[in-house]
Amino acid sequence: MSTTEDLKTRYLKEVIPALKEKLGIKNVMAVPKITKVTINVGIGSYMSKGGKDHTDVMNNIAAITGQKPIAVKTNKSISNFKTKQGQVVGIKVTLRGKRMYDFLTKLINITLPRVRDFRGISTTAFDERGAYNLGLKEHTVFPEIGVEDLTKVHGLQITITTTAKNKEHTRALLDAFHFPFKKDSELKKKKGTGSQEDMSELALTGRERSEMAKSK
Q1: Burial of 107 (0-12, 13-18, 19+ CB in 10 A)
Q2: Is 32 in a helix, a strand, or coil?
Q3: Per residue in 15-62, pLDDT tens?
Q4: pLDDT at 121 over 60
C-alpha cells in the first residue's frame, strides 16, 4: 500500500469483497467507503505560545495536505471567550478524491509510525455517524515539515468521514485499510496504569470546537 493507486485498488479489489462477507452486505453500493478527510487546527493555543498570526499554520497545513486551507472565523463576539466577530479561531481543510487518498497513504505508512512511542491509535474515537477522530499533538511528524518550520509546534485534529452506518462498520472499514489500532495488550496495559492519554484527544478549546463545527 505504498502509493495512492494501491490504496484505491485495495478498496476495489480487496476491501469491498471482504466487507461484503464480514458485514453481510449484498449490494456493493452499500459497502462503507471513506468520503472525505477533514483537518482542523485550533489557533487559540498556538497564539498563546507566541505565534504572531496564523500564517505559519496555514503554510504548514498547505504543505502537509497539498491543498490551501481556509481560516475559520467567529460569527459573533463572545465576551466569555474574549473573542471578536470575524476573529480567526482555526484553520481547516477538507480533502476528497486523490488528495484524500494521498494523505491517508502518508498518514498510515509514514506519519503515524514517526509518532514518538507510538503504540497504535485509539479504538474508541468513533461516532455513530460513521466518522473517526484522530488527534496529533505535533505537526512535525509529517515529512513535509522541515527544520525551518519548527519555530512553533502545533497539533491538529483529523476527522475521517465514511458512509458506514455505525461504529462497528466504521472500524471494519478502517481495519481493512490497515489503520494501526491499539492492540489488546496495549489497551490492558493502559487500563492498568490509569493513563488518560489518547491520540483521539486534541487540545482544542470549547470555543474552537464550536466554531469548527459551524463551518462544516
Answers
A1: buried
A2: coil
A3: 999 999 999 999 999 999 999 999 999 886 655 555 557 888 999 999
A4: yes
Fold of the 33-171+200-214 domain: 50s Ribosomal Protein L5; Chain: A, (3.30.1440)
pTM of the predicted protein model: 0.80
For residues 98-121, average pLDDT: 94
Residues 111/177, Cβ–Cβ less than 8 Å: no
* Distance, CA of 170 to CA of 129 (rounded, Å): 9
- How far apart are the C-alpha atoms of 115 and 66, rounded to whole Å? 21
DSSP letters spanning 153-183: ---EEEEEEE--SSHHHHHHHHHHTT--BPP
DSSP character at residue 83: B
Chain Cα centroid distance, residue 51: 23
Q: Where are the alpha helices (DSSP H) in the chain?
A: 4-10, 16-23, 43-48, 55-65, 97-106, 167-176, 184-193, 206-214
| pLDDT at residue 202, rounded to an integer | 44
